[in-house]
C-alpha cells in the first residue's frame, strides 16, 4: 500500500503560524510608520520640494487612519450583520423563492456610483459619518450575500443527508456542518466587501466624514501631489493588510486534505 505525499498537518500548521507572524510584524510596522509624521515630512519633502506643505494640516496622519478604520469597520460590520443572515435565509426552504429578488436588489445597490449614493443619503442622514457608512454598507452587501448563498448551495446533498441521518436538527446542521464547510467561500465574499469599503471610503471626505480621503481631496483641490500620496499610500497598505488577514483566516478554516491512499 502506497501513500502519496501530501502536506502534513504539522507543516500546514507551521505555515499558518508563520503567516500570522508575518502579518503581525507588518501590522506593527504599519502602525509605527503612520505614527511618525516626521518620517512622512522628510520623504514627501524630498519627493516634492516645490510644495510649501507636504502634510495635510488638519490632523496627524494617524488620526486620518483611525477615522478611516472607524468608517470601514462600522460599515463592514453592518454589511456582515445583514448580509450573512440574508444569504442563509435565501438558501433555506422558507426563503428560497426570495433568492432571485435578494440577489438582484443587492447587486443593484452596486450599480449606483458612490457619489450618487452619498448625495441621496445626505438629506436623510446629514453630512459626515452616517451617510458614508450607509453608502459603504450598501456597497459591501452584495459580495457577502452572494458568497454565502454560493457556499451553502454548493454543499453536496449527501453531506446534508448524512447530517440529517444522524439526527441533527436544521439549526444544528447549519451551525455544525454547513457554515464550517462554507466558511472559506463566505470569508472570500467578506474579504471582497472589506476591500471595496477601504477604497470607496475615500469619497466620504467629500461630505466631511474624514479619513484618508481628506488629504487626497485636499491634494486634488490644491494641486498638491504630496497630500494625495499621504492619503493613498496608507489606504493601499490597509487594503493589503486586511486582505492578508482575511485570506489567512480563509486558509486556516479550509478543511485539511486527507492523505491519498493508492496501491
Automatic annotation (TrEMBL):
Gene Ontology cellular component list: plasma membrane
InterPro entries per record: ABC_transp_perm/SBD, MetI-like, MetI-like_sf
Keyword flag Lyase: no
Protein name: Osmoprotectant transport system permease protein
Family the UniProt entry places it in: Belongs to the binding-protein-dependent transport system permease family.
Keywords for the protein's UniProt record, in alphabetical order: Membrane, Transmembrane, Transmembrane helix, Transport
Membrane spanning residue stretches: 20-48, 68-90, 111-129, 135-155, 175-196, 202-221, 233-253
Superkingdom of origin: Bacteria
High-level lineage: Bacteria, Bacillati, Chloroflexota, Dehalococcoidia, Dehalococcoidales
An annotated GO BP: transmembrane transport
Cellular localization per UniProt: Cell membrane; Membrane
Chaperone listed as a keyword: no
Ranges for domain ABC transmembrane type-1: 65-250
Its membrane topology: Multi-pass membrane protein
Pfam annotation, one family: BPD_transp_1
